[in-house]
Design a protein that fits this description.
heterodimer; A: Alpha-Beta Plaits; elongated; B: two-stranded antiparallel ribbon
Chain lengths: ~220, ~375
């Protein structure tokens, strides 16, 4: 009779799972285009070229991003600013800026390399195209306009979520509280239109309390 | 045969056929949904509401696909095998009464493909025919995995059909005591299960007069045997993907494969329907004719039949999601050393008890 007992035990497992799945308790699948899961704060998505609040471009055409890129997908050419009507506050600006999204590995080393925080990443990752040419993002697509709005390659696409395009990945935060103690609670990297004016990250002490509460809740 | 009678026959066959096709399409979808739920997945969601048209889409796709014929097949048998699988599957269901007969004018319309007086024997014969399809498909494919699948099918079918037939014998012997003489007609077997066990004892007057209760052991043996007979998990050695690719249907593609697939799901439904008919009283059940409108109490038997059948079909799906496949020797052990002796012993016990009840003790 041991066999029968084990048999019923097995039926109970699958039957129980079925009931829990129907009630939604154990269902882990999200039907992606219909419902989007919230992305992690530091998600690496599409790049964007930022501006200062006065409308000046942050990129100074130094080509450090291109040098840092392990996939060799960034192409930048700098050009001297017109002294009367400068494009960027520096000496030069990036007048050609291309990223080949087919080669990009979304490592954000360009973001780390940038001395002026001109290039950052957003949360948008729905970037599929139907031609290789469309996958090469040029300055026109990458650069935000003076109001801080970022152009999208296919704005009519149903997956083009403009909010995600305006959510910065926040690499700067990675260097904040847990990095240097002196910067705890300090709002980092402000003055950018669009993805700007973040709240400071919680301090280490606050986060410890939160982690503890969560662990107790789980246990 | 007069024209109205001819029309009724055509209607019976067509209605049974349509019912079978519709429930089979739904069953494939239902299995995918239910097994998905048991594995914390969603299952098909794209085609139609809740993915209910998924089977239709798959069927259409298979219909338009190329049916590849490998070079080394035995062509005649290879082409014949899918039909040998589908035709018996349809014929088996033709024997099952799926609703209460009703009258149109002077003519009686039975909701059943055909009421043979040897219905049960015909079912046994046709389910044996279905095995030929698997064996011939395996052999004629001219390839090693289908051959192994076919060989397994032979052994499995012989061992489990014996148990299935013996379980049926117990039911038939018991049914003979329930009315005027013995019968093998499915309609008659259902007819004899209407009502309750109230005549045995007033306590039982709410228990339906199903064969399930006096023949519980036969029911369990029959259930195990039909799972093996339809080549379903955990007895799906014939088409064990992990061991022998697809088994007998490895070399089939396109519509020919779809016919095997269709036959499998038709067999699940018709075997469940037969189990429901033999043990759970088929379409019988309270129809409340005194206070329900006529057409509702006319449709209720169909509902009872489908509810009972689907309870068993669900068990098929549940087993598939739960149990791992048996090893070959375990399959044989279960068949020959457990089920057949158990079925034989049950026939002896059952007939002795029936004999005592009918004729009294021999020494009295």
């Amino acid at each position: 009779m041991g066999v029968v007992k084990e048999f019923l035990k097995g039926l109970r497992v699958t039957g129980g799972t079925m009931l829990r799945t129907i009630s939604g308790e154990e269902l882990v699948t999200t039907e992606y285009p219909k419902e989007m899961r919230p992305k992690p704060q530091r998600f690496h998505g599409r790049h964007v070229l930022n501006r200062y609040p006065d409308g000046m471009e942050k990129c100074i055409g130094c080509e450090l991003c291109a040098g840092a890129c392990p996939a060799d997908c960034i192409y930048v050419r700098g050009m001297d600013n017109d002294p009367e009507n400068p494009t960027s506050p520096g000496e030069r600006f990036g007048f050609v800026y291309e990223i080949n999204m087919l080669r990009c590995i979304f490592c954000a080393l360009c973001v780390e390399a940038c001395p002026t925080e001109a290039i950052t990443m957003t949360h948008l990752f729905e970037m599929s195209t139907t031609s290789r040419q469309d996958a090469i993002y040029t300055r026109e697509t990458l650069l935000m306009d003076e109001k801080g709005e970022v152009p999208h390659m296919f704005p009519d696409d149903e997956l083009a979520d403009m909010d995600e395009l305006l959510t910065a990945d926040g690499w700067v935060r990675a260097t904040a509280p847990s990095g240097v103690a002196a910067y705890e609670g300090v709002q980092m990297w402000q003055g950018t239109p669009g993805p700007a004016n973040w709240e400071p990250e919680p301090t280490q002490a606050e986060r410890d309390v939160r982690t503890q509460a969560k662990e107790e809740g789980d246990g | 045969m007069s024209w109205p009678e001819f029309g009724i026959v055509v209607f019976r066959v067509l209605a049974t056929f349509v019912l079978l096709m519709v429930v089979t399409l739904l069953n494939v979808w239902a299995e995918r949904k239910i097994v998905a739920d048991m594995q914390s997945r969603l299952g098909p969601t794209r085609a139609g509401p809740w993915g209910i048209l998924q089977t239709l889409a798959d069927g259409l796709k298979l219909f338009f696909k190329e049916s590849v014929i490998p070079r080394k097949v035995e062509l005649g048998m290879y082409l014949l095998a899918p039909f040998l699988a589908v035709i018996p599957a349809f014929l088996i269901f033709m024997m099952v009464p799926w609703g209460k007969p009703f009258m149109i004018g002077d003519y009686e319309v039975a909701l059943q493909g055909a009421d043979l007086n040897v219905g049960l024997l015909f079912i046994l014969a046709m389910s044996s025919m279905a095995v030929y399809a698997v064996v011939l498909a395996g052999w004629s494919s001219g390839s090693k995995y289908p051959l192994l699948g076919g060989v397994r099918a032979t052994a499995q079918a012989i061992s489990y059909e014996a148990a299935m037939g013996l379980a049926m014998v117990a039911v038939v012997v018991f049914t003979a005591t329930q009315g005027d003489g013995g019968t093998l007609s499915m309609a008659e077997i259902v007819e004899r299960q209407t009502g309750t066990w109230g005549d045995i004892s007033p306590v039982l007057s709410f228990v339906p007069r199903w064969n399930l209760f006096p023949q519980i052991a036969a029911f369990i043996i029959f259930m195990i045997a039909i799972v093996a007979e339809t080549n379903r998990a955990p007895f799906d050695l014939v088409e064990a993907e992990q061991e022998i690719v697809g088994g007998f249907h490895t070399e089939y593609s396109g519509m020919r494969f779809a016919m095997f697939f269709l036959a499998e799901y038709i067999n699940i439904f018709s075997m469940s329907a037969i189990a429901a008919t033999l043990f759970l009283g088929g379409w019988s059940g309270p129809t409340f004719e005194s206070f329900l409108p006529g057409f509702i109490s006319g449709l209720l038997p169909i509902f009872y039949f489908l509810a009972k059948t689907y309870a068993i079909v669900f068990l098929f799906f549940w087993l598939r999601a739960t149990l791992p496949r048996l090893r070959y020797d375990q399959l044989m052990t279960l068949g020959w050393k457990r089920l057949i002796p158990a079925a034989l012993a049950w026939i002896v016990v059952s007939t002795v008890v029936i004999g005592f009840r009918q004729f009294g003790a021999p020494w009295s």
